[in-house]
Amino acid sequence: MIIRLFQEQDTEQIAQLFHDTVREINIRDYSLNRVKAWAPDNIYFRNWTKICSERLTYVADNEGAIAGFCELELSGHIDCFYCHRNFQRMGVGSQIYSVIEAKASQLGINRLYTEASITAKPFFLHKGFSIIKEQQVECRGETLTNYTMEKILKTTNN
After folding, report:
1. How far is CA 142 from CA 12, 20, 43, 133, 136, in A?
2. Which residue in 49, 66, 86, 112 is deepest, having the highest Cβ count within 10 Å?
3. What is the per-residue pLDDT across 26-40, written as a single tens digit (0 to 9) for each?
């Protein structure tokens, strides 16, 4: 498996991975109505190609199959961090995260932050993030709980 930057031909797999992960993994922590609002039937509700191209989007490429992906914004915001249902708890997220943190350090970003789902919160805690606050967010008429989390990165400057 290699971690590489997003390519336009990844779009369909990423959209499907997002949809399926929310519907099949996050359903453990959210109601059916909430996951349907979060990941609507139309997987192209979001312009995946445009957004993934505008950010540093890393994918875990398993011989042509996308096993996971994550978007890093230059502000240090981590968005859309998902692993395929068949690659859960296999270290894929950790591999992607290592690349994200290294890139952030290289760019001089000293703070990473995210809005983690109930499902993702333990992963981010394990990676050294702290919970800033629990919040309720509106999504297509449903209210979802998530957590604003951050991690201060060690600077390499003396």
Report:
1. 26, 19, 18, 19, 10
2. 112
3. 999 999 999 999 999
